[in-house]
Amino acid sequence: MTNNDEKMRADARMNRDLIIDVARTAFAVNPETSLNAIARKAGIGAGTLYRHFPSREALVVALYRKEIDALAALAPKLLAEGPPVEAIRTWCARVADFSRIKHGVADLLRAALSDNDSQETYVLMIGAMTQLLAAGQSSGDIRLDADAEDILIVLAGLWRLPPTPAGEARAERILALVMRGLTLQSP
Amino acid sequence: MTNNDEKMRADARMNRDLIIDVARTAFAVNPETSLNAIARKAGIGAGTLYRHFPSREALVVALYRKEIDALAALAPKLLAEGPPVEAIRTWCARVADFSRIKHGVADLLRAALSDNDSQETYVLMIGAMTQLLAAGQSSGDIRLDADAEDILIVLAGLWRLPPTPAGEARAERILALVMRGLTLQSP
DNA sequence: ACCTGAACACCGTTCAAGT
DNA sequence: ACCTGAACACCGTTCAAGT
C-alpha cells in the first residue's frame, strides 16, 4: 500500500503531501473537484497525481486516514468508559456526524464496503463495529444476529443529510431507530 | 412537467419513445452509460435528447415512471389485504428489491428525497410510505414518531447490495432491523 | 526514480443552421 | 416546432520525453 513511512525521494514525498493539502481544501469547497483541477492547483503534472493516487478513492483514503484511524481507536475507548449500548450509540453518531459534514467519508465507507482496493478502511471500520457489537452481545444487550456490515451500510446511507438542525434531527431519529432494532428488549 | 399525454408533434413523440427504449436497454447493461452514447445509439442528435430530458435525472424518472407508479399503487392494496405491519414490511421489501436490481431507482429515490426537480417521484413515494405508517399508527402497531422520509432514506441506502443470495440476505436482515425499530412492542 | 505536460478518447451541454 | 451535429470546455488517464 501507499505507506506514509516508506522511504521516498524527497521530491516525491513533498509532492504527495502537497497533493493531499490541496485536495483537502479543494474538496472542502467542492467534493467533486476534478483530479486534473487538483493537479493544476498544486502546480504538478497530472501523471504525478496519478502515480501517487491511482484512483480518486486512493486520494480520499489518504485524505481521511487520520480521521478514520481516530474513529477506529474511539471504539475501545468508548467501551472502556461506559456500557456497550451507549458506546455503540455514540460511535454510530460520530460516524454519522462525520459523513454528514465530509461527504467524502461516506463515499469512502460505501466503497470500502463493496469495492476492492480500500481494504484498510474496510478492516478498520468493520473491526471497530464488530468489537462494539461483540461487547454488547456479551453483556446481553445486543441481538446475536446483529451484523457489523449491516450497520455500517445503513450509516453510510446517511450522507447528504443537510448540515442543518433538521438534518441533525433526522440523523438522530434514524440512529435511534437502528438502536431499537439492534437491542434486545430486556424481559 | 414532461407529460406523456400532451400533444406533441409526431416526430417529437417518436423520438421521445425511442430515447426511453434505448436508454432502458443501455442502462440495463451499464447504468452509467453516457447520455451522448444513448443519443448515438438512438441515432438522434444530442440536442434532441437534451430538450426531451434536460438532465439525466429527468430521463431516469421517465424510465421508471411506470414502476414508481406501480409501487405507489401497491401501498393501499397491501393495506387492504392484511395488517399494516405486514403491508409495511412487504412494501419496503419491494422497494429494496427494486433498487437492488435497478440501481437507477435508488439514485432516483435519493435525488427525489434531497434534490429539487424530481418532485413527482418524491410525492408518490412519500405519500405511499406516509399512508402505510399512518395505518400502522392507527392500529397501534407503529411508533408515533415514525417518519416516512427517514425510512425511505434508509431504503435508498440499500442499493448496490450485490444481487446474490448474500445480498438478499443482508437486505432482509436490515429490513427486519428497521421493522423492529418502527414497531411498538405490545406490552 | 520521479516529474512534466501534451495527447487521447470521451463527457455534458449549447446553439447555429436546417426542415 | 422540432431536429441535427459540430463545437466548447472539460474530464480521467496514459506515456514519451525530460531531469
Shape of chain A: elongated
Uncertain ranges of chain A:
none
Kindly provide the radius of gyration of chain A, computed on alpha-carbon positions and rounded to a whole number of angstroms: 18 Å
The whole-number mean of residue pLDDT values of chain A reads 90
Oligomeric composition of the shown chains: homodimer
Order of helices and strands of chain A: HHHHHHHHHH
The SS-based structural class of chain A is mainly alpha
The CATH superfamily of the largest domain in chain A is known as Tetracycline Repressor, domain 2
And the CATH topology of the largest domain in chain A?
Tetracycline Repressor, domain 2
Q: In DSSP terms, counting alpha (H) and pi (I) runs of 4 or more, how many helices of chain A?
A: 10
CATH architecture heading of the largest domain in chain A? Orthogonal Bundle
The largest pleated sheet of chain A is described as:
none
